[in-house]
Amino acid sequence: MPELPEVETVVRGLRAVLPGRQILSIRLGKTDFIDEPILLAELLPGHRVADVSRCGKFISIELTPREPEPSADARQYLVIHLGMTGRITTGNPSEPVPAHTHVFLALDDGNEFRYTDTRRFGQMRLASQSWIDDLRARWGEDALEINAANFARKIGSRAARIKALLLGQHAVSGIGNIYADESLWRAKIHPARLGNRLSAREAETLRKALQDILKKAIVMRGSSISDFLDADGEPGEYQRRHRAYGREGERCYRCRTLIRRIIVAGRSSYFCPKCQPAPRRRK
Ligand SMILES: [Zn+2]
After folding, report:
1. pTM score, two decimals?
2. What's the Cα-to-Cα distance from 92 to each of 45, 115, 141, 245, rounded to whole Å?
3. What pLDDT does 225 receive?
């Protein structure tokens, strides 16, 4: 499943090619992952792309109003969530079309924007500014941007397991299973520890580990779990750097103890039982 670094990688790829482009026409395959596909097909052509940004794990493509349409409140966004297997490419329309490609946008520079999604757990919709604002209000601050004081406050105010807090998107947004496990390993914090029992130093070590790992993963274009590809169709590289995630039974890079897997917050959690001591049980 694409996580923050993968989505950010896709956003950066799209930001290099989409702004200024006009959408000339749209062609749809299966539409069960699209909110109001008929409306989307009707409204999208004619818009120009103003900007591309990331909102948590959503990709938000800001559109300028259609040209003869003067309404001041006409700011719209094409919002995309990649789900499990969503993939976006832009390129020459003569290139072979991968199976399960369901959205084709013809652009005014002759290129084609394609959305491919094998399992169709992704989402696509046209959204207003208020929809975007609601989305931002529901979630915690972005994991890449949150500062030390806010992170410590959000984590420290909850008697929930730290792994659940990281995945829950309310304390901090954008973190999925891979980068939660990697940052907890780096910070030497057991995934089942309670957020409000972490020391200030542990919380800050964790925040720094998270941001450092996310930034490195973005530089390496994310992790190629399943069939994630960036906007240029290149696989990510970060999975070669995983230190905990997916390494059950392999040796810890720090202390050579065997990495273990347990279920925390309903998800597989990989950790080193020596470097990341379990929370002490209270009698
Ligand atoms: Zn270890």
Report:
1. 0.80
2. 19, 14, 37, 37
3. 42
